[in-house]
Amino acid sequence: MVIDVPFIFTAFMEIIKALPLTLMITIVPLIIGFGIGLFVAAIRMNKVRYIYRIADFYVSFLRGTPILLHIMIIYLGIPMVYDQLANYYGWGLKSNSIPVVIFIIIAFSLNAGAYMSETIRSGILAVNKGQAEAAYSIGMTQLQTIKRIVFPQAIVAIIPNLCNIFIGFLHASSIAFIISIKELNGAANIIASNNLKFLEAYIAAAIIYWILTIISEQISALLEKQFLVYERGV
């Protein structure tokens, strides 16, 4: 067997066309998940009565089960519930009209929220409590203290973890192909099947994932450096 090196480049140029969709199903859920994680972390850290038990279950279940199962539960479960409600209330729009990518974004967002909540919580706990006490002593409210003192430092502390989560979700996006989403891995599968050159197509896809990982690591290192310089300046 001889590797067709020129076809690797050909496959690379075809597969990279799926990059915008891959980045969308990676970045959008992380943004939504950050909001969910911030809300869940606040509930758990303040032990809001009744609700924090639900938040604990959410984090435990989502982190304790594979993301593949989340995708399948959302992909199969939401249409079933939606169609029953549509029939009951007489809605004209059926679940088969909902873009499949929406199910991926929902599943990824819920999963990201669970991981983000733990990451944010660890970042907040890493900030010296004495700084918050000092802020209270000069008349700052709890919200002002969190916004101006605690949260900025927590963000700096969790930048490496946020980078790791991004890389993890970037790689996890490859399983979206199981519900016919043509992201990078899906494009590689299609090109490989059409040309019967599986190894070359997968090498091309691996190179793209590798390049994206290196870029994200470099951005993370740059952001961390800039934040640390700002902190020292302050």
TrEMBL record:
Belongs to the binding-protein-dependent transport system permease family. Coiled coil: none annotated. Keywords: Cell membrane, Membrane, Transmembrane, Transmembrane helix, Transport. It is a multi-pass membrane protein. Residues 19-220 form the ABC transmembrane type-1 domain. This is Amino acid ABC transporter permease. InterPro entries: AA_ABC_transptr_permease_3TM, ArtM/GltK/GlnP/TcyL/YhdX-like, MetI-like, MetI-like_sf. It comes from the Bacteria. It is found in: Cell membrane.
